[in-house]
């Protein structure tokens, strides 16, 4: 575990060019808090019913005052301070919601309206406002890094705060000083070539001092964001037992708070949990009198205000007899269609079986052809008829037993929506006109009709009339395709589809382009799109990948295939097909990429070794593998390669005998997240 230590150092800010008759005042506040800047000048006409002066607060570097108050009128406030500043106690400036940008020098001025400023002194003392912000890590190295001896490595550490932290590094508790092979730059420590002596525990330190008054200094030390040392573990308990999910973390400062969530929601916001949960000081979550609803994924998140809080999760499983959750009082089935009578169940261990009662008698599914029982305990009826009507109850069981019978549900048959007027299978219409496709439904209550285009949504407008008809006006090329009319009531959804073909347009896109490569040629085939109402021809385009421009073949094909010749062997090509008719050209098809065959004889590939395994030790790593059973073609030797994650492969060992099946590699060294080596 990498430990990060943060301390603070800073000196007093000296400001030149300011002149005041009064001693300087220094106000310190934290970012987001409220500060009050006191004006050393009293109001010239306190108690007067008609104030004859103007109060101004100015800031160094600003051309205009940040606040101007004239008598009883509303103050004028600089846009950067709008809604955040006001006068209190007559002349003092209150500043809320402090920003780091608010840090600077401020002065109050009182300007009498019946006298000149030469006659009456109007400037108060300058006040320095310092806005501090606690440091937070913005970038750190992972908890551990593994690197090969001789390679370079950089450990990163960056933070922000006000005053700006100073970053230093230590190894195994001792400061690191820059050397020829060790550099510290912008908070990062870099090693030119690691050795075995480089291994160790590295710490990043941040330091800031904040001056208090004129003689004393306050020292802040922030070290480490929380590290979870005991994560919660998956737990299985019985209903009514008490649960204890441990979560312990270490941090500096150690004043941590623990937040627990279930399925991403704070446990104290869950109505069924909040009265039965408690998080004790060490982070342990206690849940009393478990119920089946308490099962779920619980996440622990400790925080001490530094950096990003870590988290760890575990699953709590509450075992209980099978239980019906909430049985509806009414179940509606569509007459003449498939229907389901559900038994909503919660069971842990899993459900073993469900017993059903219909009209106060045990239900025998063998008496009802087409009725089956699913593994979840629901009754499936292939075609619902009068046999299904009645009053049902279900009782689920698992290895713990049952929590009882469900409430009764009354099954009622209802007619699904039916088509009064259905659309035809296909409509052909010229572009630019109006197409009306009827779709009217019968039902009680009257069902609502909806339309949608199947597949890609239509970019052109369409409307649905009050009687359910689809209106396409003006008809465009984009309207072409398959459309679906559907209607739903509480028992079923019925739908019907129709195809719209728009005439007088350019062809639609070619699809399913297939290319079979040869050595110097390729056979390109495709499925033609709708021709727009006119005869269409096809142009095949090719492109040598990463070389030159796209080229088309002069021959226009009226078929759905073309043999492309004069290609180079062992070369990657891209192909696309475009259709055209007398109206114009259609869009290009999707691109298909192939590689032509090599003119050289095909060489049988070597069979690679299998079952590569690794065993690490302090001296190095041991690799072993299974030698391929097939030796055709003959194996001359093995080569072992490795790489750091995301890096390039390098040869570690060459010319290994084909009869060898293991090798020991020395010289792998840990410097603290472990990268996989293959």
From TrEMBL:
InterPro entries: FN3_dom (IPR003961), FN3_sf (IPR036116), Ig-like_dom (IPR007110), Ig-like_dom_sf (IPR036179), Ig-like_fold (IPR013783), Ig_sub (IPR003599), Ig_sub2 (IPR003598), Ig_V-set (IPR013106)
Superkingdom to which the source organism belongs: Eukaryota
Domain spans labelled Ig-like: 29-110, 135-221, 225-317, 321-412, 417-495
Protein species of origin: Sinocyclocheilus anshuiensis
The entry's keywords: Disulfide bond, Immunoglobulin domain, Repeat
Lineage, broadest ranks: Eukaryota, Metazoa, Chordata, Craniata, Vertebrata
Coiled coil ranges: none
Single Gene Ontology BP annotation: cell-cell adhesion
Residue ranges of domain Fibronectin type-III in the record: 506-599
Protein name (database record): Protein turtle homolog A-like
């Amino acid at each position: 575990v990498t430990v990060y230590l943060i301390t603070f150092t800073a000196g007093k800010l000296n400001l030149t060019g300011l002149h005041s008759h009064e001693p300087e005042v220094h106000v310190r506040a934290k970012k987001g808090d409220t500060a009050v800047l006191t004006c050393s000048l009293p109001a010239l006409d306190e108690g007067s019913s008609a104030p004859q002066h103007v109060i101004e607060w100015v800031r160094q570097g600003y051309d205009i005052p940040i606040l101007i108050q004239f008598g009883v009128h509303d103050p004028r406030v600089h846009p950067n301070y709008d809604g955040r500043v006001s006068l209190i106690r007559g002349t003092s400036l209150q500043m809320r919601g402090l920003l780091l940008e608010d840090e600077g020098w401020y002065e109050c001025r009182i300007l009498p309206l019946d006298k000149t400023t030469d006659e009456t002194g109007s400037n108060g003392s300058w006040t320095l406002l310092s806005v501090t912000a606690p440091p937070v890590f913005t970038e750190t190295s992972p908890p551990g890094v593994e690197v090969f001896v001789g390679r370079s490595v950089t450990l990163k550490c960056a933070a922000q705060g006000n005053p700006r932290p100073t970053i230093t590094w230590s190894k195994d508790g001792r400061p690191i000083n820059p050397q020829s092979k060790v550099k510290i730059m912008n908070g990062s420590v870099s090693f030119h070539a690691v050795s075995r002596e480089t291994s160790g525990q590295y710490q990043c330190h941040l330091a800031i001092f904040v001056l208090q008054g004129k003689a004393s200094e306050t020292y802040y030390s922030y070290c480490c964001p929380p590290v979870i040392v005991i994560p919660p573990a998956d737990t299985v308990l019985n209903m009514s037992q008490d649960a204890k999910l441990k979560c312990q973390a270490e941090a500096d400062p150690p004043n941590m708070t623990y937040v627990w969530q279930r399925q991403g929601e704070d446990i104290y916001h869950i109505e069924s949990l909040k009265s039965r949960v408690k998080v004790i000081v060490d982070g342990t979550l206690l849940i009393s009198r478990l119920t089946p609803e308490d099962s779920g994924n619980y996440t622990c998140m400790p925080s001490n205000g530094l950096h990003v809080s870590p988290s760890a999760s575990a699953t709590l499983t509450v075992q209980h007899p099978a239980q019906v959750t909430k049985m509806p009082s009414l179940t509606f089935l569509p007459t003449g269609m498939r229907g389901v009578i559900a038994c909503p169940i919660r069971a842990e261990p899993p459900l073993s079986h469900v017993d059903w009662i219909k009209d106060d008698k045990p239900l025998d599914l063998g008496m009802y052809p087409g009725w089956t029982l699913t593994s979840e305990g629901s009754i499936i009826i292939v075609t619902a008829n009068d046999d299904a009507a009645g009053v049902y109850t279900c009782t689920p069981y698992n290895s713990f037993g049952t929590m009882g019978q469900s409430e009764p549900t009354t099954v009622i048959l209802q007619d699904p929506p039916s088509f009064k007027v259905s659309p035809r299978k296909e409509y052909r219409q010229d572009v630019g006109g109006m197409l009306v496709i009827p779709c009217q439904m019968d039902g009680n209550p009257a069902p609502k009709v909806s339309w949608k285009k199947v597949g890609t949504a239509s970019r052109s407008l369409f409307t649905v009339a009050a009687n359910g008809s689809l209106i396409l006006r003006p008809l465009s090329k984009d309207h072409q395709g398959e459309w679906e009319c559907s209607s739903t009531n509480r028992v079923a959804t019925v739908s019907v589809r129709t195809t719209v073909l728009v005439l007088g347009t350019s062809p639609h896109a070619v699809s399913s382009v297939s290319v079979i490569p040869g050595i110097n040629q390729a056979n390109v085939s495709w499925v033609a799109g709708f021709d727009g109402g006119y005869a269409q021809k096809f142009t095949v385009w090719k492109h040598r990948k990463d070389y030159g421009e796209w080229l088309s073949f002069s021959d226009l094909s009226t078929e759905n295939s073309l043999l492309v010749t004069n290609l180079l062997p062992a070369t990657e090509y891209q192909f696309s097909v475009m259709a055209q008719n007398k109206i114009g050209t259609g869009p290009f098809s999707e691109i298909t990429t192939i590689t032509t065959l090599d003119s050289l004889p095909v060489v049988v590939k070597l069979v690679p070794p299998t079952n590569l395994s690794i065993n690490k030790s302090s001296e190095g790593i041991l690799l072993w593998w299974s030698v391929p059973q097939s030796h055709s073609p003959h194996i001359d030797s093995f080569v072992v390669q490795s790489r750091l994650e995301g890096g390039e492969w390098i040869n570690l060992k060459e010319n290994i005998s084909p009869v060898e099946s293991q090798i020991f590699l020395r010289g792998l060294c840990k410097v603290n997240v472990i990268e996989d080596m293959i």
